[in-house]
Amino acid sequence: MGLLQHLSPEYQRMALAMRKEFERDGIHLSYNEREEARELNNVIVGLESLFSANITDKIKLYEVDKELEHEVDKIVPRHILGQLVRGADPTSDRLMLSSDQLLTNTLLSHSPSPALRKEVYMQSNTSVPENLNVLDSLIRHRHLHSTLLGYKSYAHRVLSDRMVGSPVAVNEFLDSMENRCKGVFKRHMEIIQKAKAYVEGTGNEIQPWDLPYYTTALKSQRQHKRWEESGDYSGEDNEDELSQLSGYFTVDNSIDAMKILVEKLFEIQMLEVEIPPEERWDIDIGSFETSGLRKFEFHHDEEGPLGTMYMDLIPRAGKFGHAAHFTIRCGRIRDRVDSNSTSNNHQLPIVALVCNLSPSSSPNSSDAVLSHSEVETLYHEFGHGLHSLLSRTSFQHLSGTRAAMDFVETPSHWMETYTRDPSFLSTVLAKHYITGLPMSKKRANHLALSHVDFQGIEIQTQVVHSRFDLALFGETPCSPSLGGCSSTEMFARLHQQAGVPYAAGTHWHSRFGHLVTYGAGYYGYLYAQTFAADIWKATNMSSKGGMKIWKEMLIYGGAKDPKEMLLAVLGREPSVDAFFERITVNSNKGP
After folding, report:
1. Using an 8 Å Cβ cutoff, are 258 and 386 in contact?
2. Alpha carbons within 13 A on the beta-carbon side of 200
3. Tens of pLDDT, residues 285-325
4. CA-CA-CA-CA torsion for 496, 501, 506, 510, nearest 10 degrees?
5. DSSP letters for 486-503
6. Helix (H) or strand (E) holding 422
7. Which residues contact 179 (CB under 8 A, 6 or more apart)?
8. pTM as predicted
9. How far apart are CA 178 and CA 182, in angstroms?
C-alpha cells in the first residue's frame, strides 16, 4: 500500500481495479495454467458471440391456422405485418408470423384469442433451440475458467467486484424482495384468475400466455374505473382518450422532452446536428436510403462541450434486435492539452442509443406513434447515455457506465421514471400527435398509477429470472456436462417454486441475451431499481436535485465507490421503502 497512499483516490481505485483484473485473468497462475485460461477464455468469447448472434439472426417463421388469421388481422394490419415478418414466402396462401419481439409482444398483449396467444407464445419461446447447447457449453467453460483462476464458481468471480460482493448476499437480497412482494403477487394472481374464469368460462390455471393479455386488459379496466371515480367520465370523449393513450407519444415529442429535461436538470443544451455520410451506419447498400439515424451534441455554458449522442431508433433488416446503449468512445481527462485542439482538455465521449421502435401506422407516413412502454425504453437508454456523457474521469476504464454492474442501471432507471411522472407527462412529454394538445393532468396521473398495476407479478418474475441466472453459474452449475441439471429443468423448477406460470417444452431463456452480458448479475436490475426509486423520491425534478445527481454521482462514472455516491446524493443509507411504497398502496385495490 506504500505507493497507493501517494495516489489520488481515483488513481488508487484504478490501480486496485487493474490488479483485480490481472488476478481474474490468471497472473498468479503458472505459465501452462495461464495458457489454459487463455484458451478457455477464447472459447467463452466465441460462445458468447454465437449465443447473441443466434438471438439476432434466428428469426423463426411459422404458419397460422386459417381459423386464427382473422384474429391476427384484428390486432395487426397486414401492411404492418409485412414490415415485421421478413423472409416469408410471398406465394404462400397461408398467413405467416415470426418470432419478432415486437410482433410477439403485441399479439400476446392484445389478442383475446387464447388459441392464438398460445400458438404465438409456444412458437416464439422455442425459436432458438440452438442456443440450449451453446448455453450448456458456455456454462461449462465459464465454470472451468473460474475454478482454474481460484474461484468457487463463475458467480463468485463475477460478484467479487460488485456492490453486493457474493452469491450469498444476492440470494439474501432476492429473498427480501420476494418476501416483501409475496402478498402483492398473490393478490395480483388471484385477480387474473378471476378475470380469466369470467372471460373464458373456465377454471383452468393461468398460463404464461395469459399474463400479458389479462394484465393489459385489467390495467385498461382500472384506468376506465379511475376516470369514472374522478367524476370526469362523460362517455365518448373520455372513452376515446382511454383508448388512444399511445397517440400522445412520438419520437419527436420524446426527444424534444429530453432537450427540455436536460436543460432543467443540468442546464445542458442538447442540439441536433447534421450527420456526414461517412459517419452513417444506417445506409441500405442496395438503395442507398437511410433509416433515421440522428446525431446530437451536448453543451454546458461553463463545462463546454460534453459529447455526442447518436440515436438509431428505427427497425431495419439485420439490425441489432433489442434496445441498448453503446459507447463508441469513452470520455477521459487528458494529461496534456493539445495546443491545436479547439476543445477543452477532455476527450469527449461518443455514444449510440439503439432501439427498435414501432414503425409508422400508415404506409405513407413518417410519423411513428409509440406505445408508452417504448418511450420508457427510450428514456432508460437515454439515462445510460447521459451517464457516459456527464462523467469526468482520468481513465477511460472508469468512464461513464464502466462502473459496478449492479449499480450501473441506477441512472437509467432514474431517467425512465420521468416517463411516469404526472407533471412531466402533462406539461412536457405527452402531446397528441394529431391535435398537439398535452395530456390532461388527471390522465397523466392515471397513467402513473397504471405502471404499478400488477407490478407484483413483474417483480416476482424478475426475482425468478435473477435466481435462475445465479443458479446457472453457481457452485453446482446447471450443465449436464458437469453433472448438473439442464438449464431448462432449472428454469421450470424455479418458476414452479415461485408460482410463476411456466409452459412445458418452452425455453424462453434461449433468447435471454442478459445471460451473456449480465451472467450471474441479472439481479442488478432489481437492485438498481431500488436505488433509483430512492433517488427519485429524494430529488425529483428540481434543478438543485439534478445538479446534485450530476456532481455527486454521474460525474464519477466508476471512479468512486457507488455506496459513497449514494450516500452523498441521499444524505443517508439507501432503502427499498420508496420502491415498494406505491406498489403496496395500489395492490389492495380491485380490478
Report:
1. no
2. 19
3. 655 566 789 999 999 999 999 999 999 998 887 788 789 99
4. -80
5. -HHHHHHHHHHHHT----
6. helix 422-424
7. none
8. 0.86
9. 6
